Amino acid sequence: MICKLLTGNRAAAWGARLARADYIPAFPITPQTEIIETIAHWIDEGRMDSRMTTLESEHSMITSAGAAVTTGVRTFTATSSQGLLYGMEMIYTVAGWRAPFVLVNVSRALSAPLTLEPDHNDVLAARDSGFLQIHCATCQEVLDSVLLAYRLGEDEKVRLPVIVNLDGFYLSFTREPVEIPDDAKVDQFLPPYNPGETRFRAGDPISHGVAVLGGSQYSYFRYETHLASLNALEIFEEASKEFEELFGRSYQPVESYRTEDAEVIFFMMGSFATKAKDAVDRLRSVGRKVGLLQPRLLRPFPVKAIVRALAGKKGIAVIDQNISLGKGGILYTELCSALYSMADKPVIVSFIGGLGGRDITREEFYEMVAVTMKAIETGEAPPPRLLYSKEELIQMKGLQSIARVEQRKGRGKR
Amino acid sequence: MKESSLKSIKDLPSTHVLGPGTPTCAGCGALGAIKIFCDILGEKTVFVNAAGCMTLLTVYPFTPFKGSWIYTAMASAPAGAQGIRDALDLLIRKGRLKPEEDLKVVVLTGDGTAYGMGLSSTSSAIYRGLDFIYICYDNEGYGNTGYQFSAATPHAARTATSKGPGGYQRYKKDLFAIWAAHRPAYVATVAGAEPLDMARKIEKAKDLKGSKLFIAFTPCPTGWHFEPAKTIEVGKLAVKTGVWPLKEYIDGKVAHTRVPLPKGKRPLVEEYLKIQGRFAHLFSPTRNEKVLEKIQSGVDAYWESIV
Questions:
Q1: So what's the ipTM on this one?
Q2: Nearest CA in chain B to A65
Q3: Most buried among A95, B110, B155, B295, by the most CB within 10 A?
Q4: At B4, is the pLDDT very low, low, confident or very high (cuts 50, 70, 90)?
Q5: Is B2 contained in some domain?
Q6: Are A209 and A96 in contact (CB under 8 A)?
Q7: Is there a contact between B109 and B79 (Cβ–Cβ < 8 Å)?
Q8: What is the pTM of this model?
Q9: Residue in A63, A71, A211 nearest the CB of B55
Q10: What is the pLDDT of residue A414?
Q11: In angstroms, rounded to a whole number, what is the distance separating the alpha carbons of residues A123 and A397?
Q12: Do A64 and B70 touch (CB under 8 A)?
């Protein structure tokens, strides 16, 4: 085992290398590109015995990934944002093929307006596809999650592709100390991919992804895939236990931080959860009973673990780094449905923040706790809050007045 | 290039690799063409399909294919072929698959895909030198959705989306030239009604390394409005009148494998047009001389340019 300072992107590439991924269909997109650059370099230097094929689009990239897995090789790929959406038809399709591979998504907010910095609307667009989703908050988690993802997806009770998500810029380009496990131990944890009987070869023909006639057959296959996804909950616990024995790091489907006696819980995922952790520590130091619950596994959604962790809590501040336009926070909706039938359920307050990489400040975390405390007191949750400060609005007004002047100047010239 | 072992129609296999009992329309030209492809390519194949009429050949739990099959999506069948080819090569190189278990990777799409949505992924596959076979069954329209015009629809044809008095106003895209411009190993036009020419071309191309692409002329009784029994007649007339040139691109050169009789001796294009309902408006209630002449002179100009 060695320890290195790695960016989130390089940690993802290390995951693919340690997993001995045979095949890497690729297409560059910011902020993911460093992953495929790193792997390309390793292949050129003979440090990875793999083949990388650069396709002409993410749609084709995901098609070839699924087709390669169906032929029997371990496959890794990565994308971000517009790329994930461009390939969305195939995201659903390859999950239906039951083709287990790992796709690292480096989150980046969606157009329009066009931007490079992160939020989770890209990866959440794949929420209902059949891909499992693991959300990471640290670079170590990125590497470890790629290994866990193969174990999970390739398990014969699951057989589904997995998205490992990390935030663009905040994690993709941030260096953190990362322990790189020994090859031999990884091989022990992750044996070579066994495609079983479902692979293409002469003399043993099979048909994949074929049409069905009617809703009954269609429903059968869709239900089967759904149930396979739910199987991943149990397999995650098993794999994670073995992972801890081998590597000494423990991963839960939902990560609890200082929640035991907490009254107010932040509920959020991704790298911004580390900001919430810092706020928890500071609030704890002045005697506030605050904790953090961070779903790592979003699909399958670990309902039981969440209910268990939130039993007896008074208030939850859900911080969504996404927005379902016309509805609100997606995580908020997910959590509400998970807790609805719980007796003495906590008050759930919805906050939207961190869109397009907008920071969530320490003061905002404090304020969210105050708002949630008040909701506990009154027993009534306020309408969802969209985090945005007066200063930001003043700045925006400034930009708008510049835009108006420029527009007038432009018209004057014509 | 060694001479073909297929000298006459009698040399074509009398038993077929593709099984019977498919749900295609009566007289489907595409099915006949695919049958010949399967006969020559054999059983060690994996067909990579994009959305179209032939998608319904394989409907759970039945398939007429003796080899494997995967349905991808409309735009990306060549990318599916890339993933399979790359994976087979990796498995053989790493000793996880015996070379005799290798497969020929065959993309099967209609013209709607080949001339349009799938062109980007095809262009890129050829550019990467992908070792695969592409079969485009060209029925000159979006057949599976009720026959709307596609970029392969000929001038003046009536389709579900060109029902106006003049029919379809644009001209068929030259996919052969587009594919050949990529300098692949092989490109050919074929016709189901000319099985010997077709079988010879498949035989010639199948063991070449690289991209081998076919545009198969496949008359569609339901879309073109003719009796299912006339599929072969329509196909033969398309070749005889010069509407559908049979040609191949190999080693950087285009060669015609069948040249129709010279102008004046070969049948007029209208012989081909008048047996199809999609062109009926050119003959009734009155002959549309202007359009008929335009189509005829287009065909004549093509053959003048190549002879």
A1: 0.96
A2: B83
A3: B110
A4: confident
A5: no
A6: yes
A7: no
A8: 0.97
A9: A211
A10: 62
A11: 31
A12: no
